[in-house]
Design goal:
single chain, mainly alpha, Monooxygenase, 3 domains, two-stranded antiparallel sheet, 21 helices, rod-shaped, phosphatidylinositol-4,5-bisphosphate binding, protein transport
C-alpha cells in the first residue's frame, strides 16, 4: 500500500494534466485535441483520468472528494469532446457505388472482391479483412480503423466507470445516426410518413418499391450489421448491454423509417395491379427475416423484429385479399359493348396475362394461398355465379384451384358478353376466339400448364372446338340447305324431271346467302393464324364439294335456258377463293372475285 503522501503527489500530478487540457480555461486546449497528438500524450491523459478515479474511490475527507469530483467532471467533458471528435474524424461516407448488396449465391465460395471490400481498403489505416456472420448474406465491414476503435473504447470505458454512460451513448448515437442518414440518402430512402406514401400515385410507388427492395437488403445485411459490429467493438463488455443500447440509439430511427415504407404498402388500398409489387416486397422481406433476427437479436430491438414479422403477415394478407377481389372483379366485370368482329376481348387478354404472372410467383403464392376459392355455387342458386365441381380437381393445390376458378369465371363472363351480339354465328365465333386464347396462354406457360393440369386443359380445348362447331352450324346449315336435291324434282303422269324455276330460285338463294356471309364474315376476325386457317379448311371441306356436286348435277338445266349467268354466278374455284377472305377483320370488295369460266 502506498504511503498517503504518494497518493497526494499522484493526485496533484494527475489533476495538473487534467486542468492543462481544460478547454474552458485554456485557448491552447480548445484548439488542440489530445487524441490527434502522439500516443505518449494520449496515454498520459488516460492514466491521469484513472488516477483521479482511484482518488475518488479512496478519498475520506469531503474536501479531497470535492477536488477529485471537480477534476473528473473536467476530464469527462474533455473525453466527451474527444470521443465525438474521433467519431466524426473517422466517419467516412461510404461511396454510392459501394452501397450494393453483393451477397454471393449459395455455394459460391469465391474470393470477395465486392465494391464494399475495395472501399474498405481505402478507408482503413490498418489492414483488416471483411468479417462474416454464420450466414452468407450478412456482410459486416469495418467502419473505422482499429486504432480509432481502440481509442474510442478507452474513452468509453472511463466515461462509463465515471457514471457518464448516458452522455457516451448520446454522443455516439448522434454522430453515427448522421452517418446512417447519409447512407440512406445515397440509397434513395426518403423520409416519408405512412400517410405521405399512401398519397403517392401507384406508378411512382412502383419505382420506389424497386428501389426500397434493393436498399433494404443493403441496410439490413451491410449497413445495420456493420453498425452493430462497430458497437460491439467499442462497447462490448464495458457495461450491461451498452453495445446494444448504442446500436439502438444509432439505428432505431432509420430502421423504423425503412420499415414504415413496407408497412404503408401493406395497409394501402388494394387493387389488382398492386399484387406483383406486393409479392416482390413480401419475397424480399421474407428473405431478409433471418438476417433481421440476427442483426436485431436483443431484447431492446424486439420491436423491430416484431414490426418486420407483422408487415410480412400484412403483405401476405394483402396478396390473398387482392386475389379474392380480382376473382370477384373478373366475375362482375360489367362491359356489354361487343368487341368488333368477335375478336379477343380486352378482359380475356388482361385476365390471362394476369394469371400467367401469378404462375411466375408460384412458390410464393402457393405458400400464401392455403384455402380453396369460395365459389358459393354449391350453397346457392345464384344465376350470376357459375357452377364448379371441385371433385374433379380435388388433388390440385389451393393456388391451382384459384387459377382454374378464374378461368371458369372468365368464361362465364364471356358467355354473358357473347349474348350482346345480334348475330348468333358471331357470338359463337367470339367464344371460340376467347376460349382458344385462354388455352394458348395456358399452354404457353409451363408453370401455369402444370398447375391447371391436362384434364382442365382438355375441357377448355373441347369448349372452343364446340364453339367452332356451333358457329359452323349457325352459319352454314342454311347455306348448305340450298344445295340439297329435295324440292327440285317434279313428277308428271309419264315422266319425272327437274323444275327449272325451282332450280333457278335455289341458285339465286344460294348466291344471295353466300354473298351476305362473305360480306359480313370477311370483317370478322380470328387473330390466331392457325385457328383461322383451320376453320377456313373446315368450311371448305363441307362447302366446296357440296357446291361442286350440286353444280355438276344441275348446271346443264340452267345453261339450256336463258341468261344462265344470272344464276350460275360462281365456279367452285370462285367459292374456294372467297372463303380465303373470311375472318381477316376488314371489309373486302362487295363482289366476290370470279375466275374465267
Amino acid at each position: 500500500m502506498k504511503p498517503p503522501g504518494n497518493d497526494v503527489v499522484a493526485f496533484e500530478s494527475a489533476e495538473k494534466i487534467i486542468l492543462r487540457w481544460d478547454s474552458t480555461a485554456s485557448e491552447d486546449a480548445r484548439e488542440k485535441m489530445i487524441f490527434a497528438g502522439d500516443r505518449h500524450e494520449i496515454d498520459r491523459y488516460l492514466q491521469a483520468v484513472d488516477e483521479i478515479q482511484r482518488s475518488m474511490e479512496s478519498a475520506t475527507l469531503s474536501d479531497d472528494h470535492s477536488k477529485a469530483n471537480s477534476a473528473i467532471q473536467i476530464a469527462m467533458a474533455r473525453l466527451e469532446d474527444e470521443f465525438r471528435n474521433i467519431l466524426i474524424a473517422h466517419t467516412t461516407p461510404i461511396e454510392a457505388d459501394s452501397l450494393t448488396d453483393s451477397s454471393p449465391l449459395p455455394g459460391d465460395d469465391s474470393e470477395d472482391d465486392s465494391p464494399l471490400t475495395k472501399d474498405l481498403e481505402h478507408q482503413e489505416r490498418s489492414t483488416s479483412s471483411v468479417s462474416y456472420r454464420s450466414t452468407n448474406s450478412i456482410r459486416e465491414i469495418d467502419l473505422m480503423p482499429s486504432n480509432a476503435i481502440y481509442d474510442l473504447r478507452c474513452i468509453a470505458e472511463r466515461m462509463i466507470l465515471a457514471g457518464y454512460l448516458r452522455e457516451c451513448i448520446q454522443v455516439y448515437g448522434s454522430v453515427r445516426k448522421s452517418a446512417v442518414d447519409s447512407s440512406f440518402r445515397k440509397l434513395g430512402i426518403e423520409k416519408l410518413s405512412i400517410g405521405d406514401i399512401q398519397r403517392l400515385e401507384w406508378e411512382t410507388l412502383e419505382t420506389k418499391i424497386r428501389r426500397w427492395i434493393r436498399a433494404a437488403k443493403v441496410c439490413v445485411r451491410i449497413l445495420f450489421a456493420s453498425e452493430k459490429k462497430l458497437c460491439e467493438q467499442i462497447f462490448e463488455g464495458l457495461a450491461t448491454a451498452t453495445d446494444d443500447a448504442c446500436f439502438m440509439e444509432t439505428i432505431k430511427g432509420p430502421a423504423i423509417q425503412l420499415f414504415n415504407f413496407a408497412e404503408a404498402i401493406s395497409i394501402s388500398r388494394r387493387s389488382p395491379e398492386k399484387l406483383f409489387k406486393i409479392l416482390d416486397l413480401h419475397d424480399a422481406l421474407s428473405d431478409l427475416l433471418v438476417d433481421i433476427e440476427i442483426v436485431f437479436d436483443s431484447k431492446s430491438s424486439e420491436s423491430i423484429r416484431v414490426q418486420a414479422v407483422e408487415i410480412l403477415s400484412r403483405l401476405a394478407e394483402a396478396a390473398r385479399g387482392i386475389l379474392s377481389e380480382f376473382e370477384n372483379a373478373v366475375l362482375r366485370e360489367p362491359s356489354k359493348v361487343p368487341v368488333p368482329g368477335g375478336t379477343i376481348h380486352p378482359l380475356t387478354r388482361y385476365v390471362m396475362n394476369y394469371i400467367s404472372l401469378i404462375s411466375d410467383y408460384k412458390q410464393t403464392m402457393s405458400e400464401l394461398i392455403v384455402s380453396k376459392p369460395s365459389t358459393g355455387s354449391r350453397y346457392s342458386s345464384d344465376p350470376n355465379t357459375p357452377d364448379m365441381d371441385f371433385v374433379d380437381v380435388e388433388s390440385q393445390t389451393p393456388l391451382a384451384l384459384h387459377l382454374i376458378w378464374i378461368a371458369v369465371i372468365l368464361q362465364f363472363n364471356l358467355e354473358g358478353k357473347s349474348k350482346c351480339y345480334r348475330d348468333t354465328s358471331l357470338a359463337h365465333l367470339f367464344m371460340m376466339n376467347n376460349v382458344h386464347y385462354i388455352v394458348q396462354k395456358i399452354k404457353g406457360s409451363p408453370e401455369l400448364r402444370e398447375m391447371v393440369g391436362d384434364d382442365c386443359l382438355r375441357k377448355l380445348t373441347g369448349k372452343f372446338r364446340q364453339a367452332a362447331t356451333n358457329y359452323q352450324r349457325a352459319t352454314w346449315v342454311n347455306v348448305l340447305h340450298c344445295l340439297r336435291d329435295e324440292g327440285l324434282h317434279v313428277k308428271g303422269n309419264f315422266s319425272s324431271g327437274v323444275s327449272k324455276s325451282a332450280l333457278r330460285e335455289r341458285f339465286k338463294t344460294f348466291n344471295a346467302m353466300f354473298e351476305e356471309v362473305h360480306r359480313t364474315q370477311s370483317t370478322w376476325l380470328i387473330p390466331d393464324t392457325q385457328l383461322r386457317e383451320e376453320l377456313r379448311i373446315s368450311i371448305s371441306e363441307k362447302l366446296i364439294p357440296a357446291y361442286r356436286s350440286f353444280l355438276g348435277r344441275f348446271r346443264s338445266h340452267i345453261e339450256s335456258g336463258r341468261h344462265p349467268e344470272n344464276y350460275i354466278k360462281y365456279s367452285g374455284e370462285d367459292i374456294e377463293t372467297a372463303v380465303l377472305d373470311f375472318f381477316e377483320g376488314y371489309q373486302v370488295s362487295q363482289h366476290i372475285r370470279r375466275r374465267s369460266q
